[in-house]
Amino acid sequence: MNHNYEKVATIVTKYGGNRDSLVSILQDIQAEYHYLPEDALRLVAQQLDLQLIQVYGVATFFKAFSLKPRGEHIVTVCLGTACHVRRAPAVLDEIERQLGIEPGETTEDMQFTLETVNCLGACALGPIVVVDGKYYGQMSPGKVKAILNRYRKAPKARKHEEIEVSR
Amino acid sequence: MKRLKSAAELEELQARILSRRDPNRTCVVTSVGTCGLARGAEDVAQAISKTLSDLGLKDSIDVKTTGCQGFCEIEPVVVIYPERILYQQVTPADIPEVISESVIKNEVIERLLYSDPSTGQKIIHEQDIPFYTKQNRLLLDNNRLIDPHKIDDYLALGGYSTLAKALFEMVPEQVLEEVKKANLRGRGGGGFPTARKWESCRNAPSSDGVRYVICNADEGDPGAYMDRSLLEGNPHSVIEGMVIGAYAIGSHYGYVYVRHEYPLALKNLIIALEQAREYGLLGENILGSGFDFDIKISRGGGAFICGESTALMASLEGKIGEPRPKHIHTVVSGLNGKPTNLNNVETWANVPLIINKGADWYSQIGTEESKGTKIFSLVGKINNTGLVEVPMGITLREIIYDIGGGIPDGKKFKAVQTGGPSGGCIPESLLDLPVDFERLVQAGSMMGSGGMIVADEDTCMVDVAKYFVKFLTEESCGKCVPCREGLDRMLDILTDITEGQGKEGDIELLEELGGVIKETSLCALGSTAPNPVLSTIRYFRDEYEAHIKEKRCPAGVCKALITFTIDEEKCPGCQRCIKVCPQMAISGEKKKPHIIDQEKCIKCGLCRDICKFEAIIVS
Amino acid sequence: MVELTIDGIKTRVLEGTTVLEAAGEMGIVIPTLCYHPGLSAYGACRICIVEVVNGNSSSLEASCTLPVAEGQVILTNSAKVIKARKVIIELLIASCPNSKTLQDMAAEMGVNKIRFKIKDKDCILCGLCVRYCKEQMQSGGIGFIGRGTSRRVATAFGVTPEECRNCGGCEWICPVRERACMTDDLVNGLCGRCQNLVPVETCPVCTRCSESVGAHGHKVY
Fold it and tell me: Which chain C residues have a beta carbon less than 8 Å from that of A55?
C-alpha cells in the first residue's frame, strides 16, 4: 500500500487540475490504488480546492467507486433485464453462498469482492459474470463453483487498469 | 499519417486507399465486439492469424477483425470474403479446417453453417440470412467492413466525404435545413426533433460564443446495447456526425460521455479520435476549412441517472448526477451555463447519412412523423437475440416473428417490454402496432432507446414490474420525495404481492401512488418510473389478482408461491437432478423415483432444466 | 413585467420571479418545506406543487423553481393538487414520522392514514442545512452522500469537518426535526393532536401549539 499517494498529484495534473474532471480523476485513482483511499481523497480535495464533502459526495454517489479496500479478485454479476429473465438472481445467490458475502462486500481473506451491475450490454450471453475483467457468459448456478475455484488457486490478479474483455 | 489540408487531399487519400485494396482478395473476418469476445472470439481470431502464418499465407490472404454485427446469438462469427461465406459459433479448434477446406480449397463446411430455425435450411452466404435480409441496416451494415482500429477502413467506404461536403459545399444553415427537412428525431428516447434542438442551441445567446455539443453514450436501459455496438464497431460514423452537427450549430467543443460499463467502446473511441486527429479530420482547421472542433471523452461512474441530460452535464462538471428541472432548457443554459446540444449516439450516426444522401431520400423511409430507421435490441425469450435495424413503421409482429424468429421452445408469446424502465409492456393483442414514437406512447409504452425485451408464458409480469422498480430505486438520485420514497414504497407493495403478502386494494394503491409519482417527480426518471407497473396492471391485471387473491403465480416464477415436486410416475430415477441441485435437496436411489426436500429447496430451477423426462413439476 | 393568472386572479410580476413568490405577493400561501427565501430554491420536497393549466391538459410543477411566464394559468389548490399533496405528505411522514411540522401539515390536509411502511430516517433530505452551510455560512462542511434511498446528509468520513464553525445553523433551519412531535403513540403513523387541540401529556407547554418545545435538534453526524 502506497502511503504517499504521490500518484494523486500526477493524476490531477494530467487533467489540468480541472475541477470538472473530478469523476475522471477519481476513476484513475481507483485504477491505481484498487479503491479510493481516504487520504487520496483528502489530497484531491486539497489540490482541486474543493470542500472535502464535495469530493466525498461524488465518491459515494457513483457505484463504480469503492471507498473500502477491495479483494484481489472482483466478481461482478450482471443483473440487467435480459440476464434477470434468464435467472441471473439464482447465479448471484449461488455466488453469495460460495463466498459467504453479499454484493458490496469483500471476503475476510481479501480474496474476492462481489459486485453487481445493471447491464453490461452483452444480453445475448446472459447471465453474465465478469471476474477480473473476463466475461463468463451463459452462467448457471452449477458453473459457479468451478469458475471461482480457478481464481482461488490463481496467482495475484493483474492490475485493474480497465476492464479487459477476453475469454 | 499525413494531415489532410483540403477536401481534395481527402479524396486523393480515399482513392489511394481503395487502389491498394483488391475486393477479390480473400479475407477472413472475425467479429470481436464485446459479445463475440465473451464467447472466445479473440482466441478464434488469433488461431486464424497463427494458422495462416504457419502456412506461409499471411501475404496472400487478409485477416480482419471487426466490431459487433448485432447477430449475437451466433457468435463467434467468421466470414470469408469475397463470397461472404458465414460460419457460426466457431471455435479455435475449427480453424485449421476452415483455412484448409474453406479458404484454400473454397469448399463449404456444412456443420458450421447457420441454419434457419423455421425451415431448418442451411444458409451459406451472410447476405442470405433472413435475420439480416429483413432488416434495413443503414447504420449497422458497415460494421462488417470496418476494423474500428483502422480509420482507413472507414475512409475506404467514403467516410468523412460527407464532412467535406458540409464544410466546403454548404453553410451551417443549409446543414441545419437539411436535417430539419429529413425530420430526424432523437434516438435516445425523447424523440425530440433534432434540427429544432440544434437551431435553439445555435440561436441561444452566449457571452463568449462558447457552445457545447455532447454525445450521450450513457446507454443505461438494461437490455439495450445499440449504442455500444455503434461505438465499438463504427465510431467514426458518430464522430463524423458530431463534427457536422457542431458545424451547423457553431460549436467548437464536443464531449462524448461513455458509460463506465463499456470498456471496449471507450477504447475503440479513443483510438478513433486519435486517428481522426492525426488526419486533421478533428481539431484545429479541419481539412483546411478554418473550422475548429475537438472532442473530449468523459466516463460515467456507474449511474443510470447520468443518461438524463441535466444529470449528465452535472457529472461533466465534476458534480453528482442530480438532475435539475428543465424550465430553463439546456440548449440555452446547459454545461457550465453555456448553450449545449446533447444527442444520442444513434442520432449522431444518422447525420452523415442524411447530409450525404439528402433529406428527400431519408424521409422516404419510415412513417409520416417518424422518419428513418431505428436499431432495436431484441432480447429475452426470443430465438434470434440481437440488434435489429428496421424502418420506422414496421410492426412488432414482423420484428418478433419474421426477424426475431419467434419464441424458443415453442412457448407462447406474452408481451414485449419497450423503452426499458421508462416504458411499458405491449401484449399480444397489439402486436400489429406499427412501431413509431407516437403509436408506442398511445399503447402505454414508449420507444425509449430501443430495448425490446420479449416475455413468454413463463415470465411473470408482476415480477417484471418489480424488477424495473427495484432497478430504479437503486438508480434514483434521491433528490425528490416522490421518486425516492414513492418508488421505494411501490417496491414494498410489489414485493409483498410476489411473496404472497398482497392485500385487497394493493393494485389500486399502486395505481394511485404511480399516478402521483408520474405527475410530481422532478425529472424523467421519476416521472416515467411507474410506467412498467401501470402498463402491466393495464394489460395483465389478472396476474396481479392471482398473486393477491389466490396467492398463486400463474407463470410459476415467484419463489414464495411455487413449489417444485417430482412426478413419481415420470421419474425414471436417473439421478441427474440430484447431481445438479446446489442445495443437495433431492434424494433418491437409481431407478427409483426421487424426492425433493421442501425445506432445502431454494427453487433455483436447475433440476427442471436438466430433467429430460419433464418429471419436475412447478405448482 | 410578466402577466399571469393565479387562482383566477391576474397579476403582474417582474420577470425571473418564481410562481411561489408571485403567489406569495398576492397573499396566497403555498405550503413549502425545502424552500427558504434566503437560500437558493431546490425543488426537492414537491409539497409546493401547483397545477399549470395548458388548454385541455395540465401538469403539476414545483412552484418554488417554476419561473413565471406570460399568460401562465396557475391553480394552487385544485383537486388535482390536493390529491397529489396528500400522497406526498404521506410519503414524507412514512420516512420521518416524528416531526411536528409534518404531522400538522398532514392534519391540516385531512390525511387520516399513512398507507405505507414507516421507515424512519429522521430527515426529509430537503437540503436546507446543506444550502445554509454552503450559501449563508460560506463553509460547505456538510453535504449529501450516497444515492437513492441511502442518500443522507453527512460529513466526509463521518468526522467534524474543518469548515464547521459551530454556528448551529444546520439545526436551526431544519424544517422538520427542529421541533419534534412529542407524542409517544402515533396512530397509523399520524398524530394530529396539535391541530385538533388535544393536549399531549408529554408536551410541557400547550398553547395551541405555537410554542411547543422540541428539544431534539437535528443530528447530522
Answer: 156
The phi, psi pair for B163, rounded to 5°, reads -60, -45
pLDDT, one tens digit per residue, over B335-364 is: 999 999 999 999 999 999 999 999 999 999
**Of the candidates B61, B529, A50, B328, which has an alpha carbon nearest to the alpha carbon of residue C161?**
A50
Count CB neighbours of C119 within 10 A: 14
What are the grid coordinates assigned to B602, written together?
431454494
**Residue C147 to residue A54, Cβ atoms within 8 A:** no
C91 touches chain B (CB under 8 A): yes
> C139 to chain A nearest CA, in Å?
8
Q: What is the CATH number of domain C2-77?
A: 3.10.20.740
Residue B145, in any domain of the structure: no
* C65 near B CB under 8 A: yes
> What is the per-residue burial (b if ≥16 Cβ within 10 Å, else e) of B173-197?
eebbbbbbbbbbbbbbbbbebbbeb
Its pTM stands at 0.92
CA distance C141 to chain A (A): 6
Kindly state whether C144 is in contact with chain A, defined as any CB-CB distance less than 8 angstroms.
Answer: yes
CATH code: domain of residue A105: 3.40.30.10
ipTM over 0.85: yes
Whether A95 and A145 share a structural domain = yes
Which of A61, A87, A103 represents a domain boundary (last residue)? A61
Pairwise CA distance, residues B615 & B556, whole Å:
15
The minimum CA-CA distance between B518 and chain C, rounded to whole Å, is 10
Chain B residue with Cα closest to C125: B479
Break chain C into its structural domains and give their ranges.
2-77, 128-173
Q: What is the pLDDT of residues B66-97, one digit of tens each?
A: 998 888 888 899 999 999 999 999 999 999 99
Q: Is the Cβ pair C151, B492 closer than 8 Å? A: no
Residues 6+ apart with CB under 8 A from B264: A165, B33, B34, B37, B228, B232
Q: Would residue A1 count as lying in a domain?
A: no
Q: Which subunits count as partners of chain A given 3+ CB pairs below 8 Å?
A: B, C
Q: For residue C163, list chain A residues with Cβ-Cβ distance below 8 A.
A: 51
B116 and B174 both lie in a single domain: no
The residue-averaged pLDDT of B579-583 equals 80
The beta-carbon neighbor of A62 closest among B219, B263, B303 is B303
Q: Give the C-alpha distances (Å, rounded to integers) separating B421 from B186, B441, B527, B529.
A: 18, 14, 11, 6
